[in-house]
Amino acid sequence: MADEPGDPRQGRAERERDPPHSQRPGRPGLRKPARSAHLFTKESSTMTLAPYRLVWLALWVEASPAENAAFTEHFRAALAPHGEVVVHARGPFHRTPELLHFEIDLTPRESASACLQALGFDRVAHVWERPADGRAFLHPAVHGALAGETEAATAPRFETGDVVRVRNSSDARELGLVDAEVIVGLPDYDADTKPQQRTWRYSVHVEGQDETEDLAEGDLEPTGRHVQLYGERISITRDGVVDGAEALRGL
Q1: Last residue of one domain, picked from the residues 117, 152, 187
Q2: Engineering a disulfide at 234: which of 30, 58, 186, 247 sits with its beta carbon 3.0 to 4.6 angstroms away?
């Protein structure tokens, strides 16, 4: 496929990649592109906040599964001063079972950029990074962290894997997709637009095509159905048969 699973503008698959290196001296963390080009400055701090704001974090913690609940509450309490927090405890990371995997959605009280800066992240060439100075992030057991932010006029209406029907629009007619059912890939927006004015577009997977197409949110209507598009586990049986071959889509 043309897209790689990546945050809401990415989604869970990006967060399920291998954890970054520990934020310790001499071991800088994995660089990950931030999905918005909006930079926070003193001047921008006076701007109207985008109605939809999200800071997401993916954390890998050196701990046992028995500590899942305790770390869930610890992260929720530690981040609560910054906004509304939802912590998802994913359990042992499938590639590194000795690490627990947590995904955190934070709706900040201020701009998403200001929130990340308050959490100690710096923006370097469109990448949010924590300095490799040996300081712990949220807890000494945190082995690695990824972070990203999204700001738009509204929350995205569709999620990766939603089956949608294409409405009659100029773009749909040009692509020959009017009334076709397609699968939503990744949401996106124009990062050069002011955050409070951004609207959503989506890559969509079309049956029989290797490449995705791009359509505006208003060009799509829900069907109420959903499929797992990225991140499906695969295994090989004793007979050498691949199980879960849908995960091979795009390879």
Answers
A1: 152
A2: 247
